[in-house]
Structure formats: C-alpha cells, structure tokens
Amino acid sequence: MRRRAKSAKIKVMHLGAIAVCVDLPDAAAVAVALSGVDAPFLHCPMPSGPANNQTWNEAFFGAAYQEKLPLLVYVTGEPSGARFPSFTILDGITEGMNAVLGSGIPSIVLQSAFYLENLHPELFAPLLRSESKLGYPPVPHDLKMQRTSYLDEAKLAVEAFARPELAGQAFEIGSSDTLAGAKLASHLSGWLNRDVIFDPASREAFCQRVGEALNNPCVVFVLSDLYGSIAALERNVMSVGTATLETTFGVTLTSLADHIKSWS
C-alpha cells in the first residue's frame, strides 16, 4: 500500500514521470529501475546502522554494472570526507563515497552538509513555532555550520548531468554562507515575524526524542554519533568556500537568508 501511495504521489507531482518503487538492497529490482536510464541521481535515506550504506551500495552497483550505467550523480546526504573526525557513521558515509568513486562507474559525488529544510518538520524543531525556540541542531552556540538546501542540491545535480568530464570527483556543497545558531535564529525571526532564540537541545535528549518518534532505536545511535562528531570539530571547519563550486557548475547558489525569505 505504501509503495502504491508513493508512486501515485510522484505521478501527481511530476506529470510524465514513471514511478518505480524498489527496495534498495534488492539488486534485481534496482536493475529494472535503471534499465535504459542515461544518468541516475542517487540519494540514499538516512542510515539506521553503520552497515546500511555498504548494503545499499553493493546492491546498487551490482545493478549499475549489469546495466552498464554511463554516468551517476551521487549525493552523500550527510557531511563526509577525511577532514572530519573519525566517528562510526561519518566513516561509513565517507567509505561509501570513496567506494562510489572507485567503483568503475563514472560518478560525480556531491557531499552535502546538513539540510536547511530539516527546520520544517516539528520532529527536528518542535518548539520553533510554539515557543520561538530553535533547538536544532544540538551543537555548541559558536559552531558555524554549512547547510545545504535541497533546491541548490537539485540545481547542482542537473548541471552535473551535463558535465560528464567531472566524473571521478567529489564536491562539498552548501549555501553561500555559514552561520552559527544565533544568526540562523535571527533569519527565522523574519520568517515567523517574531523573535526566535537559539536554545540547542542536549544531544542525548534530541536523539532520544527523534528515535522514539520514529520508533527506531538505531536512529538514536546514528544521530548521537553524527552530532558528536560535529560537536568535536574546530569552530570553523564546517565552512566551505563556494566560489569554485559555482564556477565549476555554472550556477549561483542562494544564501540561507534568501532561502528562508522564500518560505511561505
């Protein structure tokens, strides 16, 4: 029932699209979905354990080899790379990224940061609308974080499809500005038309609440490990220059302030 509902939603939102719902670990089903595709965009869901990325990648690339996939645009979905501290989940994401680049399938990797649109679901920011408190992400007040908008990610992915010469490379992507929590809260104040303060939840409380809401104890470990690694960063490590990224892909990225202003 859930698959049929998702397929129906895709058909309504994207006229002319052919919706195919498959389980990521099912290589045979993935091969059917990839049949005749020139270049897929692969963005795996948030892992519920350290082995997920490896399982998904093994199935996907088994299908990709079978279909002789000419190009892949792959998104990590979370921060990745050797410059981050070694933690279980980030190590797994980075290993998955490196496996993609070494797979033999021509691949362009987009290394996303934390998604700006995570501020919308009350699951992540339950007090934002009711009490004007921004408790997400659960990181120190002075940590400046790079954030990625789905809109900018989509813009870069579309341009990547037209640039097969970039295959074999990975690019850290994010907004054109990097903000600490208080500055982000000030932009949200304009959106909600009232003062918003950054009052981060403790990592333990945040992760436990999300895990219980999703009825998935593994998520508690995944999120705790992820945000523990981010909290251990030096304060400006999350900042990524975007000028070269814009030049390489021929795009103009949108500031966080302008993204938030566009929210209705």
Outline the structure in words:
The structure is a single chain. This protein is an alpha/beta fold. It has a single domain (24-261), classed as Rossmann fold, CATH 3.40.50.720. The protein has eleven helices and eight strands. The chain has helices at 2-13, 27-34, 52-67, 88-101, 128-131, 150-161, 181-192, 203-214, 217-231, 243-249, 256-261; strands at 41-43, 72-75, 107-111, 114-115, 133-134, 147-148, 169-172, 197-198. Helix 3 links the parallel strand 1 and strand 2 (72-75). The longest helix is centred in the first third of the chain and has 16 residues, at 52-67. The two termini are 31 Å apart.
> How many distinct domains?
1
Radius of gyration: 19 Å
Q: Major beta sheet, specifics?
A: 4 strands, parallel
Strand order of the largest sheet: 1-2-3-7
CATH architecture: 3-Layer(aba) Sandwich
Bin the strand percentage.
Answer: 5-15%
In the predicted model, the low-confidence regions spanning at least 5 consecutive residues are: none
Write the layout of secondary structure elements.
Elements: H1 2-13, H2 27-34, E1 41-43, H3 52-67, E2 72-75, H4 88-101, E3 107-111, E4 114-115, H5 128-131, E5 133-134, E6 147-148, H6 150-161, E7 169-172, H7 181-192, E8 197-198, H8 203-214, H9 217-231, H10 243-249, H11 256-261
